[in-house]
Amino acid sequence: MFGAMNALPVLDLRSAPEKIANSADRAVARLLEITDHPRIERWIQFPKAVFVFLVVAGDPTSGAFYVYARQAKVWYWIDFNDDQFGGYAVADFDRLVRECHFFDIVEQPAVLAKKSGWVVELGARPRTAA
Questions:
Q1: Is the Cβ–Cβ distance between 65 and 78 less than 8 Å?
Q2: Which residues pair with 55 in a beta bridge?
Q3: Nearest-angstrom CA–CA distance, 5 and 81
Q4: Which pTM was predicted?
Q5: d(Cα 55, Cα 95) in Å, to the nearest integer?
Q6: In 3-state terms, what secondary structure has residue 107?
Q7: What is the phi-psi region of residue 74: left when phi exceeds 0, alpha when psi lies from -120 to 50, beta otherwise?
Q8: What is the CB-side half-sphere exposure of residue 3 using CA atoms within 13 A?
Q9: How far apart, in whole angstroms, are the C-alpha atoms of residue 1 and residue 43?
Q10: Neighbours of 57 (CB within 10 A)
Q11: Cα–Cα distance between 126 and 101 in angstroms, integer?
Q12: 100, 124 in Cβ contact below 8 A?
């Protein structure tokens, strides 16, 4: 589980009205619109980012990770090169946060735009792939 991480920009709010791009609630609402209104299982705010875990109703293993880089005003979908093709469960979110120290990345969302990539493994802090 986890491994090489991909951070794919999925929603750019730079040209959105400031009341949307500068509001965590409204930025999340826009993300929910483009992802067909999944359920929010986890929502954690940081000064530089918002981290949400969204799950399709009725499918507890369909979860996906998203990070909103507040300064860049871009939502990133976080995916990993692992065998979780159908998505993740809440327990996977908890492992990512607790056992992989994923907040190291979330608290510095500018690193998501870098092309070098990251490796996220159980029991270790995230490291650059290069």
A1: yes
A2: 39
A3: 6
A4: 0.95
A5: 16
A6: coil
A7: beta
A8: 6
A9: 22
A10: 9
A11: 7
A12: yes
For residues 109 and 51, the answer to whether their CB atoms sit within 8 Å is no
Q: What are phi and psi of 114, to 5 degrees?
A: -75, 140
Enter the tokens of residue 28.
Answer: 């999340």
The CA angle 127-128-130, to the nearest 5 degrees, is 140
How many angstroms separate the CA atoms of 96 and 25, rounded? 24
Q: Which two tokens stand for residue 47?
A: 């000064």
pLDDT along the chain (130 residues), means of 10: 93 94 96 96 97 95 96 96 87 96 95 87 90
Beta carbons of 30 and 13 less than 8 angstroms apart: yes
Tokens of 45: 């705010």
- For residue 44, the SS3 value is strand
* Cα distance between residue 45 and residue 65, in whole Å: 14
- Each domain of the chain, given as residue ranges in start order, spans 3-128
Q: What residue has token string 């690193």?
A: 111
